[in-house]
C-alpha cells in the first residue's frame, strides 16, 4: 500500500536575505523537487511566502501613495512565466508565458465572487474590489507584509496524474521555475497620476514550495523498475502575443499542436503595459486613444484560412444595440466556454456589472463613465474564445493548418491594442531513464 508524506522545499536560488525582488535583480524563483522513488501529486503543489510592497528604492511607506496592485490576480500578478522541467535532463515539459494575463481571464471564469473574497483571498490575496486590495494587502507592507500559499494552475501542475520523480522510471526530479514580473506591470496608480517620487516595487520573502509525495509499496516499486518507462497525458496552455490597430484586425499563428481543445484571447491597450499610470493586467475591450471602447462588431475564428468551427461570421450585439450597458452575450458565452465548458461552469465572477461597455478605459479625473479598474466585481472582464471539442472529441488538429482570428472593429484611430492568445491543447509526456519527450 502506498504511503503519503509532505515536503517543504526552499527556493534554490534565494539570496542570504531570503528576499526575492525583481527590482533588486532577482528575476526568477527556482524550486527543485529531487529525484526519488516516488510520485509527486501535482495538484498539491503550493508556492508559499510573504509579499511586501514599497514606495521606492529607499523602502518608503507605500500606504501614503496611490499605488495599487491588480485586485483580481493578487499575488499571481507577480508571476510572468511558469516553467516545469525535468531536473535530471533539464528538458522543458511545460512553459506558461504571460501567466498573470492568463490568470486574469482564468480566475473570473472559473471562480465565483465568493471564492475571490474567501479562500482565494486567503491563499492568493485576490479581492473583488481595488480599494480592498489597497487597504488590506498593499498598505499592510508598512507592518509585516502578507502571507500567501497558492496553487499553480498550469495544465501539468493542476492535473490528476501523479508525476513520477524516479531517474529510472520517471522524469528524474522536477524543477519549477517562476519568472517574476516587472514592477511597472504589477503596480498602477489609482488616479492615473504618477508622483515624481513614486517608484513602487514588491518583495517576496521566504519563498518555498510545499507538496504531497506518494511512496509506492515494494511490490509496485518492483514493477515500476522492471517497466522502466511510462507516459502521461495532460492539458497544457500555450501562449501567443500579437497586436491589432485597424478596423479589420487579423491574427494568424502556426500553432503546431495536434489536439487543440480551445483558445481564448484577452485584450489591453498597448500603452497600458509596463506603465505605472495604468493597470497592465486589466482585461478590457479594444480601445481608442480617447478612452472609448473600439467595439467589436464581428468575429470569425479560422482554421487554414477557412471559418471554423462556426461556418459563418458571428455578428455582435453592438450592431443593433449601441446601448453601452448591454453585454456582448454571444461572444462572452463562447469566452466562458473556452475556459470552462459552459454547461459545467458553476463558479463565475463575470456578471452584468463587469461585462458591459459602460466604462472609461483611461484613468482620468472627471471621467463621465466609471474607470475600468474601479468597476464592481473585480473590474472589467472581457475576451473572446472558441471551443473545439464540444462534441466530446479530442480537439482539432492545427499541426498543418494555421489558427486565425478575424475581427471587425468600429473605428480606427491608429491605437495599438495588445492581444494575448492562450491555446489549450492535449499533450503527452513520455519518459524513461534516457530522457523525457513531450508529444504535442
Explain this structure to me?
The protein is mainly β. It folds into 2 domains: 3-228, Hexon Major Viral Coat Protein, domain 3, CATH 3.90.249.10; 234-427, Jelly Rolls, CATH 2.60.120.730. It has 7 helices and 23 strands. It has helices at residues 99-110, 113-117, 119-123, 130-138, 183-186, 218-227, 329-339, and strands spanning 3-10, 19-20, 28-33, 39-40, 46-54, 67-69, 79-86, 92-96, 146-151, 163-164, 174-180, 187-189, 201-215, 229-244, 248-253, 260-269, 296-303, 306-307, 314-315, 384-387, 403-409, 417-432, 435-439. The strands form 5 sheets. Strands 1, 2, 4, 5, 9, 10 and 13 form a 7-stranded antiparallel sheet that branches. A hairpin with a 2-residue loop joins strand 22 and strand 23. The relative contact order is 0.20. The model has no long low-confidence stretch (mean pLDDT 91).
The count of DSSP E runs of length 2 or more, i.e. the number of strands, is 23
Contiguous helical run count: 7
Listing every helix as H and every strand as E from the N terminus to the C terminus, the arrangement reads: EEEEEEEEHHHHEEEHEEHEEEEEEHEEEE
Oligomer: single chain
Biggest beta-sheet profile: 7 strands, antiparallel
Q: Strand pairing plus helix content: what structural class?
A: mainly beta
As residue ranges, the low-confidence spans are none
How much strand content do the residues show? 25-35%
**Inertia-based shape:** globular
Q: Could you name the CATH homologous superfamily of the largest domain?
A: Hexon Major Viral Coat Protein, domain 3
What is the arithmetic mean of pLDDT? Answer: 91
Helix content: 10-25%
What is the name of the CATH architecture of the largest domain?
Answer: Alpha-Beta Complex
| Rg from alpha-carbon coordinates | 22 Å
Number of domains: 2
And the CATH topology of the largest domain?
A: Hexon Major Viral Coat Protein, domain 3
CATH class of the largest domain: Alpha Beta
Amino acid at each position: 500500500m502506498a504511503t503519503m508524506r509532505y515536503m517543504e522545499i526552499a527556493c534554490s536560488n534565494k539570496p542570504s536575505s531570503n528576499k526575492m525582488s525583481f527590482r533588486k535583480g532577482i528575476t526568477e524563483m527556482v524550486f527543485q523537487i529531487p529525484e526519488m522513488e516516488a510520485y509527486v501529486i501535482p495538484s498539491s503543489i503550493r508556492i508559499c511566502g510573504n509579499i511586501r510592497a514599497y514606495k521606492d528604492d529607499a523602502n518608503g511607506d507605500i500606504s501614503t501613495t496611490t499605488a495599487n496592485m491588480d485586485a483580481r490576480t493578487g499575488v499571481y500578478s507577480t508571476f510572468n512565466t511558469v516553467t516545469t522541467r525535468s531536473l535530471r535532463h533539464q528538458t522543458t515539459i511545460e512553459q506558461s508565458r504571460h501567466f498573470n494575463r492568463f490568470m486574469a481571464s482564468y480566475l473570473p471564469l472559473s471562480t465565483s465572487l465568493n471564492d475571490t473574497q474567501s479562500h482565494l483571498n486567503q491563499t492568493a490575496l485576490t479581492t473583488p474590489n481595488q480599494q480592498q486590495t489597497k487597504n488590506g494587502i498593499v498598505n499592510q507592507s508598512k507592518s509585516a507584509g502578507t502571507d500567501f500559499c497558492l496553487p499553480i494552475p498550469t495544465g501539468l501542475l493542476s492535473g490528476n496524474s501523479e508525476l513520477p520523480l524516479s531517474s529510472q522510471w520517471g522524469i528524474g526530479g522536477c524543477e519549477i521555475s517562476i519568472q517574476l514580473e516587472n514592477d511597472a506591470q504589477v503596480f498602477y496608480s489609482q488616479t492615473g497620476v504618477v508622483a515624481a517620487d513614486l517608484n513602487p516595487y514588491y518583495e517576496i520573502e521566504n519563498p518555498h514550495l510545499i507538496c504531497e509525495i506518494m511512496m509506492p509499496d515494494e511490490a509496485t516499486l518492483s514493477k515500476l523498475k522492471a517497466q522502466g518507462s511510462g507516459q502521461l497525458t495532460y492539458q497544457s496552455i500555450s501562449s501567443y502575443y500579437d497586436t491589432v490597430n485597424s478596423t479589420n484586425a487579423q491574427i494568424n499563428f502556426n500553432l503546431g499542436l495536434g489536439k487543440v481543445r480551445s483558445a481564448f484571447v484577452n485584450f489591453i491597450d498597448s500603452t497600458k503595459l509596463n506603465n505605472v499610470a495604468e493597470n497592465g493586467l486589466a482585461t478590457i475591450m479594444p480601445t481608442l486613444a480617447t478612452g472609448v471602447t473600439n467595439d467589436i462588431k464581428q468575429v470569425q475564428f479560422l482554421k487554414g484560412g477557412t471559418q471554423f468551427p462556426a461556418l459563418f461570421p458571428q455578428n455582435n450585439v453592438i450592431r443593433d444595440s449601441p446601448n453601452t450597458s448591454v453585454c456582448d452575450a454571444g461572444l462572452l458565452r463562447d469566452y466562458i466556454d473556452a475556459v470552462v465548458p459552459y454547461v459545467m461552469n458553476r463558479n463565475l465572477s463575470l456578471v452584468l456589472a463587469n461585462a458591459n461597455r459602460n466604462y472609461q478605459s483611461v484613468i482620468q479625473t472627471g471621467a463621465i463613465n466609471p474607470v475600468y479598474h474601479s468597476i464592481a466585481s473585480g473590474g472589467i472582464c472581457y475576451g473572446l474564445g472558441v471551443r473545439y471539442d464540444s462534441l466530446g472529441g479530442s480537439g482539432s488538429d492545427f499541426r498543418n493548418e494555421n489558427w486565425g482570428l478575424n475581427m471587425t472593429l468600429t473605428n480606427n484611430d491608429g491605437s495599438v491594442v495588445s492581444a494575448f492568445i492562450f491555446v489549450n491543447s492535449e499533450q503527452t509526456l513520455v519518459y524513461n531513464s534516457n530522457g523525457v519527450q513531450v508529444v504535442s
